[in-house]
């Protein structure tokens, strides 16, 4: 087997719940659920009772009636993420952020100055624990895929190194659900075919896997099962979008309520654009209905923008087009993402610029919030409502 185990996958454990337990010592060792209507995160004490992310709040409380339910505090989670990513980048310049709580790190060139990959991983975990106060699991392997599987197997608060000569013995006995890209539907399809372990999938010919699972999915999963994953840690990738969403629970929501939520999401995302000197061209509305079907609607504007009013008008139009389906099926999740991102200074505005007043308002609001906090000023429609519920989908790590 060629290569060395130099890729780290670092993944914070039960991230949101761990932040809550860190900040409130009375919660440590107790089952904690973040989010009421729908579970956004669960501590390992709650997971041991069967509570899972995205589960309905009522079902979670039935499984774990003594759980402490806390509202999400997205600013606290974002701050913790920034602190952890600073440690990642202090460990190695080769960091690929995957989400708010996990990343790949390539440490192969650091042996002379920092030690073996395992020694680096040990120090990384110690720093995250002592400097940020959070548990983190790390997998070390030759490829990104194996490192990610190793970190998952090592949880909670663990470290697992998979050396090249140990890869088959480690991976092949694992359930197929461990493969990156196997969800519930694919797993059920494989189970019906009598394929329950990675090794059983690896025994198939590639053509057979493609015929059973579809060409793209079959080829991808078969390659992983055969230990083929050539992707390097990608430090140049930039997020193609930013987004935020809200889980709503199962109670009926009026269009006025949904418009308020939409306004809060857009307000926050547009400010994030301006903070990063970015603009977007495409607005994407994501919905999950009461029957758990999903819908995605998008619209691309003619000129790139970072204006709250422009993004909000597009988002409202997309929501209005989905109103009949919402009325028929109910809604359990609403989200917005902004894509086709570009740098603000690369845009040549065209005249006439019709959003001058909106630009001035955005600038004033941003300045007030920078000085006095995100909750210091709000649009009139948001008064009396907590703006801190929205959940970042994949924040930018630049």
TrEMBL record:
<dbReference type="Pfam" id="PF00817">
    <property type="entry name" value="IMS"/>
</dbReference>
<dbReference type="InterPro" id="IPR050116">
    <property type="entry name" value="DNA_polymerase-Y"/>
</dbReference>
<dbReference type="InterPro" id="IPR043128">
    <property type="entry name" value="Rev_trsase/Diguanyl_cyclase"/>
</dbReference>
<keyword id="KW-0234">DNA repair</keyword>
<dbReference type="InterPro" id="IPR022880">
    <property type="entry name" value="DNApol_IV"/>
</dbReference>
<keyword id="KW-0238">DNA-binding</keyword>
<keyword id="KW-0515">Mutator protein</keyword>
<feature type="binding site">
    <location>
        <position position="11"/>
    </location>
    <ligand>
        <name>Mg(2+)</name>
    </ligand>
</feature>
<keyword id="KW-0548">Nucleotidyltransferase</keyword>
<protein>
    <recommendedName>
        <fullName>DNA polymerase IV</fullName>
        <ecNumber>2.7.7.7</ecNumber>
    </recommendedName>
</protein>
<dbReference type="GO" id="GO:0003887">
    <property type="term" value="F:DNA-directed DNA polymerase activity"/>
</dbReference>
<keyword id="KW-0239">DNA-directed DNA polymerase</keyword>
<comment type="subunit">
    <text>Monomer.</text>
</comment>
<keyword id="KW-0479">Metal-binding</keyword>
<dbReference type="Pfam" id="PF11799">
    <property type="entry name" value="IMS_C"/>
</dbReference>
<dbReference type="Pfam" id="PF11798">
    <property type="entry name" value="IMS_HHH"/>
</dbReference>
<dbReference type="InterPro" id="IPR017961">
    <property type="entry name" value="DNA_pol_Y-fam_little_finger"/>
</dbReference>
<keyword id="KW-0808">Transferase</keyword>
<dbReference type="InterPro" id="IPR001126">
    <property type="entry name" value="UmuC"/>
</dbReference>
<keyword id="KW-0235">DNA replication</keyword>
<comment type="function">
    <text>Poorly processive, error-prone DNA polymerase involved in untargeted mutagenesis. Copies undamaged DNA at stalled replication forks, which arise in vivo from mismatched or misaligned primer ends. These misaligned primers can be extended by PolIV. Exhibits no 3'-5' exonuclease (proofreading) activity. May be involved in translesional synthesis, in conjunction with the beta clamp from PolIII.</text>
</comment>
<feature type="domain" description="UmuC">
    <location>
        <begin position="7"/>
        <end position="183"/>
    </location>
</feature>
<dbReference type="InterPro" id="IPR043502">
    <property type="entry name" value="DNA/RNA_pol_sf"/>
</dbReference>
<keyword id="KW-0460">Magnesium</keyword>
<dbReference type="InterPro" id="IPR024728">
    <property type="entry name" value="PolY_HhH_motif"/>
</dbReference>
<comment type="similarity">
    <text>Belongs to the DNA polymerase type-Y family.</text>
</comment>
<feature type="binding site">
    <location>
        <position position="101"/>
    </location>
    <ligand>
        <name>Mg(2+)</name>
    </ligand>
</feature>
<keyword id="KW-0227">DNA damage</keyword>
<feature type="site" description="Substrate discrimination">
    <location>
        <position position="16"/>
    </location>
</feature>
<dbReference type="InterPro" id="IPR036775">
    <property type="entry name" value="DNA_pol_Y-fam_lit_finger_sf"/>
</dbReference>
<keyword id="KW-0963">Cytoplasm</keyword>
<feature type="active site">
    <location>
        <position position="102"/>
    </location>
</feature>
